[in-house]
Amino acid sequence: MITPLGWLERLPSYKDQQEQLKEKDLANYGFLATRCLQSADILVYRATYVPVGEDQVAHVELSRETARRFNHLYGREPTSRPRRSAP
User: What predicted TM-score, i.e. pTM, was given to this entire model?
Assistant: First the structure.
């Protein structure tokens, strides 16, 4: 697994949603996968700078960690690791 479950669960947006929607079960793949898909969108285009707001900084960091882990596991040369840029 490239993106461990713990990485996804520690994102502030996931924690916020858990508090707001206590009556619903958010511990499913569909809810967590949106964070992986966002990272995939950033990484597939090899984005260097990603214009995001303050609430999305953790998601860009997740993309950086995912890229770092992929490169380590598969012995690839480091690809671009996205950074936040102010919109």
Answer: 0.76
For 6-64, give the DSSP string. HHHHTSHHHHHHHHHTTTS---SHHHHHHHHHHHHHHHHTT-SEEE--GGGHHHHHHHH
pLDDT tens column, 15-44:
777 777 777 776 677 778 888 888 888 888
Among candidates 81, 14, 17, 8, which has minimal Cα distance to 49? 81
Q: What angle do CA 45, 60, 13 make, to 5 degrees?
A: 130
Question: Which of 64, 46, 49, 87 shows the shortest CA–CA distance to 7?
Answer: 64
Element (H, E) at 84: strand 83-85
Q: Roughly how many angstroms between the first and final C-alpha of the chain, as a whole number?
A: 32
Q: Is residue 55 within 8 Å of 35, Cβ to Cβ?
A: no
